[in-house]
Amino acid sequence: MAKNPADQFYWADWLRDPALQAAGASTRGIWMNLLAHMWFAEERGKLSGTEKQLTRLGNCTDVEFAEFLVEMDSLEFGDIVTCNGDVTLKNRRMNKDQTQRNKTRERVKRHRDKQTDATAKEDGNGAVTDVKRKCTVPSSSSSTSSPKDPSSDIENNSKSKNSKINDENGAKAPSKNNGSKISDKAIAAVRKKLQQMLKKDGPNYWEGTKACRNRLDKFLKPLVIEAQKKASKNPAGYLMTLAKDQLIKNKEEFKVATW
What we know:
Elements: H1 11-16, H2 18-21, H3 25-39, E1 46-50, H4 51-57, H5 62-75, E2 79-83, E3 86-90, H6 92-136, H7 150-169, H8 184-200, H9 210-230, H10 235-249
Antiparallel strand pairs: 1-3, 2-3
């Protein structure tokens, strides 16, 4: 166990413990010395030894230590056990706190070990998958016959088709990207927002006629296509921002006099 250089000392517990305060000054002084040694003991909060050894640790005489044992046993401000000439002294608060710290440390260690095992298991599965994939690829230089992997045939057929396309077109055919679909409800919300912006500028920009609506739909159509292509996430939000920006830049096109 790592030895901490300092500890929290609960002065209120020391002063408010009636059993301890009922002890004599010599007993309290010996107990304070023994508490310091308990802090550095192998099992924190517990100290064992012969009476002679504990007398030296308590920095007292044999008579004073004998009186200390009598008062401790009668007042019970700590635990005392005597067996075969050895005396074991225990501070309940210090020993309880250390037991709780040990349990917490062990619980954290188990949690970290579990995470480490899970990570190692994932890495191990990935490595095995890679090895299997390498082993299933047939060697072009091998003359021996072996069962073919259906996935390799599909992969080879796909490669041959792509190579034919490249030969015919002179370049690799671009992949089709349809983008994200924007719902009619979202487009209607954008159209309504643009109408509100035009209404604020007066009847010269928005009269509410069929011609005005057709003009707005014509303006909005290419923006919808652009938003569906460029925005894979939240294309409706992208369309709203794009449409408002473009309307501000090209607002003069909506003047009734210009069309």
